[in-house]
Amino acid sequence: MVVSVRTSSTLSLDASTWGAGRVIGVRTSSTLSLDASTWLDYSKGVRYLGVPLFLSRNKSKDFAFVKEKLEARTNGWKSKSLSWMGRATLIKSVAQASPVYTMSTCKLSKKLCNELDGVVRRFWWSPKKLSNKCYTPMAWKDLCLPFEQGGLGFRSYESFNETMIAKLAWWVLSGIEGAKSLLARGACKLVGSGDSILVWNEPWIPRLPDFKPVPKASLDIIPCLTVAQLMNEAKSQWNQNMLSSLFDQDTILAIQNIPRWRVNQQDRWIWLKTYTGEFSVKSAFREACQVDQGIEVNAVMKKIWQTQLHQRLKMLLWRIAAGVLPTSDSLIRFLPNLEISCPFCNVCGESVIHLFWECSLARAIWFGLSGICTDHFQPACGVDLVEVIVFPCVDLVDAFGCGFFYSQRGLNS
């Protein structure tokens, strides 16, 4: 691996942004090439949120800073005259709580955990002495027992580290469990050898609901089978007799429509909501929105964003179709004394339909620019009005405006 760094004078590791890619570039005037050994030297001590980004084989050395910080804290407390209860409070609330982030993200070595216990143990029994030797009338593991078992409720660093890692694992498992329903909508096994796919328990038929087959109604005993047992001996095609004995005709057709596989191809998971079969956040988000909200695709709303109009005009059309334009008829609910007459004609109340379709000024603009006679069509809502623009109808166009209409129709298509 080669890291190319361009700098004018001195390279500052604190100011530089380091990543895990193969090439890292920082552009200035001159060029300095770092080989792998030099890169390892630079990577030492680089941390993110107090946790080393690069770990070596010696974890005790990588996380030695945890012990150093703990010793610095306890040494600062030695100059104070603390009661036994004061020392217990500092140990629980500060000493054993300080490295909680590091211990929740990384598994510390047993040696380092024992050393951390030793630092706290010396502070508890002999806070005034600098020597490592002290009189301990009670074992540390007994002090770490709960109150009801005769201890003081101190935490063993090793046990607490395991607990925090278990909490992280629980979050991951809970997240996976919560995402199962979404994954089940698009995750399917791609049939290769078929040896690892259970016929009745796993999704492997894309054209069926839940991608799983349903046994034939006349089947008394449902055998435990793998997909490989549904193929012939050469695994080159399906065993038709086996399929006919287990499934109905619709399921057989769905199985036969599974893409042809290679004999040496392994079974693997694919995501059916993309063309490549690879999972993408975009496709999963689209699937989650469609199923959770149960909203069908609105052709008019979809067409708005497909037109070759300026983005501001698209937003205006969307506001009209969505009914969020602040016209007087919508604001009167909140402002009872608001003047609701149209500011252009002062004849009718200001609404979306009147403002963009029924008003004398709007009628003149429609006819003058595109030859559309507004008398031929009466929109009932904003969606109907926008539909006229994104899906223009020939019946609305006067003979004088046909050329403009067809040009707009071709533009929108």
TrEMBL record:
A Pfam short name: zf-RVT
InterPro entries: RVT-Znf
Superkingdom, taxonomy of origin: Eukaryota
Boundaries of every Reverse transcriptase zinc-binding domain copy: 279-366
Listed name of the protein: Reverse transcriptase zinc-binding domain-containing protein
